[in-house]
Amino acid sequence: MSSQLHNGWTIKFSKNVHMYYHHLCVSKGTTQVMITCEDIPISDGTAMWLYDLNLDETTFSDLKEGLVEWAEASGMKFRIYTTKRNFETIEKSGRFVP
After folding, report:
1. What is the pTM of this model?
2. Is the separation of the CB atoms in 46 and 22 below 8 Å?
3. Is 60 exposed, middle or buried (0-12, 13-18, 19+ CB in 10 A)?
4. In the 8-state DSSP scheme, what is residue 84?
5. 37 near 18, Cβ under 8 Å?
6. Helix (H, G, I), strand (E, B), or coil: what is residue 9?
7. Which three-class secondary structure string do you get for 58-73?
8. Separation CA 89–CA 4 (nearest Å)
9. With b meaning 16 or more CB within 10 Å and e meaning fewer, what string describes 26-59?
10. In 3-state terms, what secondary structure has residue 57?
């Protein structure tokens, strides 16, 4: 499992721990969370579901920024689900959009 630091978050990621499901654990200070993360065929990328983490708004936004940095640095196509039906991603222009 590789460990990287982005936006102050330590991100530990291990791909395909069970079929298309990945192990994604992040920590910063006293906050440590496991994020549901798996491949999705829609965008030929990886989905990360953050909406059920029960984080305050500031921590949620800070974590999301760290995950975007990490995914971009990894060259990963991704969707970050902020609700069950809404996600954010990187457009081809490289701009992060809701």
Report:
1. 0.82
2. yes
3. middle
4. S
5. no
6. strand
7. HHHHHHHHHHHHHHHH
8. 20
9. bebeeeebebebbbeeeeebbbbbbbeeebeeee
10. helix
As a residue count, the chain comes to: 98
Please, what are the averages of pLDDT over each run of 10 residues along the chain (98 residues)? 83 77 92 92 83 94 93 87 85 53
Q: How far apart are CA 45 and CA 20, in angstroms?
A: 11
What is d(CA 7, CA 85) in angstroms, rounded to the nearest whole number? 26
Instruction: Take residue 33 and report the two structure tokens written for it.
Output: 């969370």
Tokens 């978050």, residue? Answer: 9
